[in-house]
Specification:
- The protein is α/β, with parallel strands linked by helices.
- The protein folds into two domains: 160 residues, Molybdenum Cofactor Biosythetic Enzyme, Chain A (3-Layer(aba) Sandwich); 76 residues, Ribosomal protein S10 (Alpha-Beta Plaits, 2-Layer Sandwich).
- A hairpin with a 2-residue loop joins strand 7 and strand 8.
- The longest helix is centred in the last third of the chain and has 17 residues.
- It is elongated, with a radius of gyration of 22 Å.
- It starts with 6 loop residues before the first strand and ends with a strand.
Length: 250
């Protein structure tokens, strides 16, 4: 699956609202940045609808393919929140009330406000472990290498620190961004030459439009800061030679 040093994850974004365009997916970025920071590389992201069979099949496929799988969405109180039950079926586990989650939610909402919909958020695969939620009370959960998180980005992000000691990462994946006011075609050839000289470093170029100007952000990624610095120096050499304007460096 992976070599000893590289830990790889897959992300499953679940929700019809994402596929319809009504809601923008921010969780891929939030999760990927956090995982990279603890040395886990995201190798694949899938966006799928709230359909039980598709959720089950996707979870079953990715949990065998990657060291870790993270799902986002579908663990709330409404009828179309079916991720928890689908993950139960993917692992052939009983779908039942998690006693600890029930107590947390009952305390959070108060006995009088803890209605049937809110009680639904305490239903999980049997023997699953909780991911505590400091933002809105309702916990996520994990079974083996599959971690199920909510769809609201701010809530998901607040829960990530509670996962740090539950994951085994590799070396953190570092990055540096150099943003230029230029066209992609202007730097394509020299950038390709830098990539060929540094094949163990990931170099990407991404167009942007800012304040009426077209530009390119070059992102250099590696586990080795010295390799990033070396690539950066080579890129800045041709940027200077071509007299290209630099607008941002990170």
């Amino acid at each position: 699956m992976t070599n000893k040093k590289e830990i790889i994850a897959g992300i499953i974004i679940i929700g019809n609202e994402i596929l319809s365009g009504r809601t923008k997916d921010l969780n891929t970025s939030v999760l990927s940045k956090w995982l990279n920071s603890i040395g886990i590389k995201v190798a694949e992201v899938r966006t799928i609808p709230d359909i039980e069979e598709i959720i089950i099949n996707t979870v079953n496929e990715l949990k065998q393919k990657f060291d870790y799988v993270f799902t986002s969405g579908g663990i709330g109180p409404t009828h179309d929140d079916i991720t928890s039950e689908s993950v139960s079926k993917a692992f052939s586990l009983k779908y039942e009330i998690h006693k600890e989650a029930y107590k947390i939610l009952e305390k959070y909402y108060g006995a009088n406000e803890f209605n049937e919909g809110r009680q639904r958020m305490s239903w999980m695969p049997s023997n699953s472990s909780l991911i505590l939620n400091p933002a809105s009370g309702a916990p996520g959960f994990y079974v083996e290498n599959v971690f199920c998180l909510p769809g609201v980005p701010s809530i998901l992000e607040s829960m990530l620190p509670n996962l740090t000691n539950k994951l085994v990462g590799g070396e953190p994946i570092l990055s540096k961004t150099i943003s230029l006011i230029t066209l992609e075609s202007e730097i394509a050839k020299p950038l390709k030459q830098v990539q060929e000289k540094n094949q163990d470093v990931d170099i990407g170029s991404y167009p942007f439009f800012r304040k009426g100007k077209i530009g390119i952000s070059i992102v250099i990624r590696s586990k080795d800061q010295s390799k990033i610095d070396n690539c950066s120096s080579q890129i800045l050499d041709f940027v200077k030679e071509k007299n290209i304007e630099i607008v941002e460096r990170e």
